[in-house]
Structure prediction request, 329 residues.
Amino acid sequence: MKTILDTMWSFVPARCLQVAARIGLFDHLRVDKELDTKVLASELGTNADALHRLLCVLACSGIVELTDIGWKFSASGFKYLSAGSSNSLLAFVERSAALVAAYDNLEEVLKSGSPDREMLELTQQCFGGKEAETQVFAKSMEAMSSVLAAEMVESVDLTEYSDCLDIGSGWGVFGRTMIRRWPGLSVTLFDLPHVIQGAKERCEKLPFGEQIHYMRGDWRDQLPDAEFDVVLLSQVLHEEPKEAACRLLTQGCERVRRGGIVIVVEFFLSSSKTDPLLSTIFHLNMLVEIGGATWSTEETESFLHDKGFEVIEVFPLSGGRTVVVGRRL
Prediction:
């Protein structure tokens, strides 16, 4: 019964997180100083008792802590939800609120097998359709990617490689992180024109800016016609239906020199596709949001094997992601 009740009420912590972000709670909290509930309520213009109840829910999620003095950020809450943090996921939290309306239409999605039309339109706006939405999405991905990239470079060794193609690079977080870790590496960022413009603005003036190259394009049309020691596909396969994702991964593999590697970062599912929970949620969400899908680790390993690759590493990252690394034979 507890599992059913936990599932039934799981929307409450999510909604509390979204509303807390919207009213500016995280702009007032500190990690090094406690604030009394009444003080916070006065600053936010809320009822003190109601705010206290919301904070209690956030405390159960590990976002805030209550001491004898008052409320403060937990270490992880401060890292991922404070506005000034380079790892802030606030933009993602705010965007997730839009999914609530999309899931109100889940029955229609189940009948049609197609994305929610309004959510699809909003998502397309994030890929250059509207400047404001594009900036919010890109900033969110940069924050998320900075955490994942920092973890990835500690678990994979690119010492012997000289160049990398980053497909769907965003603003170049993975590329910058890899070059800092391996100064002899050069990275080519490949993404939509407006995304590459944002990447250039952030990378050109870096001390190693000359090692970063830029190519504008759409992976749905054509990838760069060149070979690389390393090809990275981080969080891009899930944006496509299975058939289109297979084409993209095939083209990515074709760009890898013999002896080189392909790195795939994704929300991978188990072979049964019934776990882990976050990946199953993401698998459904990609259908609701954009018509994409996630893969199982087993499917990915088998696909790479069929393309002439040997899977040499599989390891987890934060937030439910997993990395699969294959070497071309």
About this structure: The beta strands are 64-66, 71-73, 163-167, 186-191, 212-216, 228-234, 256-266, 309-316, 322-328. The chain has 15 helices and nine strands.
